[in-house]
Each structure stands twice: as C-alpha cells, then as structure tokens.
Design goal:
Elements: H1 2-36, E1 38-41, E2 45-51, E3 54-60, E4 63-66, E5 72-78, E6 82-91, E7 97-108, H2 113-119, H3 124-141, H4 146-151, H5 153-167, E8 173-184, H6 187-240, H7 243-252
Antiparallel strand pairs: 1-4, 2-3, 2-5, 6-7, 7-8
Helix pairs in contact: 3-5
Length: 274
C-alpha cells in the first residue's frame, strides 16, 4: 500500500513540474511575442514597415507602435539634414582639368521615404544623387574657362545649385545646398595664370602712368596758355593807357627814395607841369 502512495506522489510531482515548465515557456513565448510586436522610431527619422517582404505604403513617424511579430520589420531612415563632402574633377572649356572639392547638403521628403526605400533601397545616394551631381558639375564647369571659373566661383555655384534643384527628384529630395570648398589646377597652369595676372597689372600700370603724364602735360599747356592770354590782355591794356605803367610802378614802389638822383627829379613819379 505504501508503494502505491509513493508512485502516485511521484506521478503528481512530474505532472506539476511539466505544468509549471509549460506555463514558464508560455510566458516566455508571450513576452517574446509582445516584444517582437513593438517597434520604435527615433526622432529625426521615419519608419518603413515591411511585412513578409512587402513594403507598407506609409512612412511611419517617430514614436512607439505595434507590428506583426516575427513576420514584420521596421527600418528607420534618417530624414535630418545630410552633408556630403567629396572631391571630383572635370574639364573646363579651355580643356584644363579642374580638381574640385565641394560640400552638398540635402534632406529627404519625410512622407515619401517608403517609396524611396521600395524603389531604390538604402543606397539612394549612390544611385540617385551622385550621378546627377557629377553630370551637373561637368555641364557647369565645361562652360567656363579655367581662370574665369576661379574668379566667378559664386556664380558657378549658383548654376550648379540650379541644375541640382531641377534634376534631382523633388519627390524624394528637398532643401538642397551646394558650395565649392576649393578649385585647383596643375602647378604649371597656375604659374601661367599668375604670370598673366602680373603682366596685366604691369600693363595697366603703364597705361595709368601714360594717362598721368598726358594729364600733367595738358595741365601745363592749359596753365601756359592762360598765362600767355593774361600777358596779352595786360599788354593790350598798357598799350591803350600809358599811365598804367606809372600806376603799376607806384604799386611796386617800397616807399624808399634812391640814394642817387639826377637833378631834382623824383623817379617814377611824373608830377606834370602846372
């Protein structure tokens, strides 16, 4: 009888252990399901939900939500301002190689990231942006001569920006900016440009010196002409009125009589006769 009770107790213990193990496994499975069914999207991002390989036609905002566990996945895509800094080279209109360093910024259109992800994938920069950027740079740089490109960098930048804004798909990309960091040429070409600039400066200096000399000469001619005309006018006046000679002599006289005089006459003053 004692043996029967022991067997029964053992059987009850095994069943109890199995029950609690099943409950524990169920709880773990439930927790996994709950955890697997929760997604979160960080601030500055949009979420793309994929269920069994199919992209949901919606861009999910940042926050926490639920999805199908195990069969659905959430991909986060950054929609904040992104910056690309790169180097490339292109030919100018006078067949000089311009080595350019630039910075390019853009943002993704938040509500359309699911379409971009579905049609292009995560490497959209390589597939959608870089080819357009290179084509626009070639078109713009190819319009300028090398020396003019350097001195008109800001105008060339505006042309590049306009080209990017018109060619990039505005369904996916917005708030585009572009800036040249540096434009370099070969040392030989830069030396040629420097020598040309120096020669132009010297030529301009020579022109300025010539103009200055001409202006000084013209000024002297004008001054001499004015003096000659004044003398001519004065001579004609003296010719018409002889008494002006005596008048000017009086004006120039310092009031001192000479030490030697001839007779009783006072020089330069003609008193006339009574």
């Amino acid at each position: 009888m004692r043996m029967s009770y022991n067997s029964y107790d053992s059987e009850v213990s095994v069943k109890s252990i199995i029950k609690w193990v099943a409950i524990g496994l169920g709880a773990v499975l439930l927790i996994c399901v709950l955890i697997g069914g929760i997604y979160s999207v960080d601030p500055g991002h949009r979420g793309v939900l994929t269920t069994l390989g199919k992209v949901e036609q919606k861009s999910y905002p940042n926050g926490v939500g639920f999805k199908w566990p195990f069969i659905s996945s959430m991909t986060e895509i950054d929609v904040r301002t992104k910056t690309m800094t790169a180097q490339t080279s292109s030919y100018t209109s006078d067949v000089q190689t311009a080595a350019m360093e630039y910075t390019f910024t853009y943002e993704l259109v938040p509500n359309n990231v699911h379409v971009l992800y579905e049609s292009v994938g995560m490497d959209y920069e390589t597939k959608k942006i870089v080819p357009v950027l290179n084509d626009v740079l070639k078109d713009v740089v190819g319009k300028w001569q090398a020396q003019d490109l350097v001195s008109n960098r800001d105008k060339a930048r505006e042309e590049v920006l306009m080209g990017l804004q018109s060619r990039l798909d505005n369904n996916f990309f917005q708030n585009v900016t572009f800036q040249f960091i540096n434009i370099d040429y070969s040392d030989k070409f830069e030396d040629a440009i420097e020598n040309k600039v120096i020669a132009e400066q010297r030529a301009q200096q020579a022109v300025n010196d010539t103009k200055r000399i001409q202006e000084e000469a013209e000024q002297k001619v004008i001054t001499a002409k004015a003096e000659a005309e004044a003398m001519e006018i004065k001579a004609k006046a003296l010719e018409r009125n002889k008494s002006l000679v005596d008048y000017e002599a009086v004006l120039k006289w310092d009031g001192k009589l000479p030490q030697y005089m001839l007779g009783n006459s006072v020089p330069m003053i003609n008193m006339g006769t009574k």
